[in-house]
From TrEMBL:
Keyword Transmembrane helix set for record: yes
Location of the protein in the cell: Membrane
GO terms of biological process kind: polysaccharide biosynthetic process
Family: Belongs to the GtrA family.
InterPro entries noted in UniProt: GtrA_CellWall_Glycosyl (IPR051401), GtrA_DPMS_TM (IPR007267)
Location of the GtrA/DPMS transmembrane domain: 20-145
Keyword Transmembrane helix: yes
Region (Disordered): 156-180
Organism, as annotated: Leifsonia sp. NPDC080035
Membrane topology: Multi-pass membrane protein
Protein name: GtrA family protein
Record's keyword terms, sorted: Membrane, Transmembrane, Transmembrane helix
Any one GO CC term of the record: plasma membrane
Transmembrane segments: 21-44, 50-69, 90-112, 124-143
Amino acid sequence: MTTQKTGPLRRAPILPQLIKFGAVGAMGFIVNLVVFNVMLLIVFRGVPHATIYSTVIATLVAIAANWVGNRFWAFSGQRQQNATREGLEFFVVSLAGMGIPLLCVWVSHYLLALTSPLADNISANGVGLVLGMLFRFGFYRWWVFSPTRANKRARSTNAEPATVTAPTLAGSPDGGLVRD
C-alpha cells in the first residue's frame, strides 16, 4: 500500500532545488559579468558597438553555463535523454525570462513615469529579477526538465514506460544540498 504525501512534505524537494537553482544563477551572473568585461575591455576594445557585442556574447555564455549547472546539478534527477531538445527549450525559457525585467522597466518607466535611476534599478533588478527567476524556475522544473513529459513520449512510442516517482534531491548523485 502506498501513501501519498500532502502539504509541506510533498513540496519539500522544491526548497533544496530552488537553493541549487539560485546558486547556479549566481554563478551564471558571475560568468556573465566576467565574460562581458573581458569582451568589452580586451576583445572588442575600440570596436564600434562593443557594448552590444559584449552583452550578447556574455549572455549566451551565461545561458550555456546555467544550462550545464541546472542540467547536471539543480535538476540532475529530472534531466531528459534528449539533450538537444532540452537545451533548446532551456534557451527559449532563458530568453523569455530575460524579457521580464525589460517589461518591468518599460511599465515603470513609460506607464508609471518613474524615470529615476533608482526606480529603473528597482523595477529591473528588484521586481524584474525576482519575477524572471520564478518564471524560469517554474518552466525549467515543470517543462524543460519534466520527468512526466519523457514518460508520455515513452508511452506514445510504445516503448517500455518508465515509472514516475516524485523527484527527490537526496536520491540525486550529489545527495542534494539539503537532504529530503
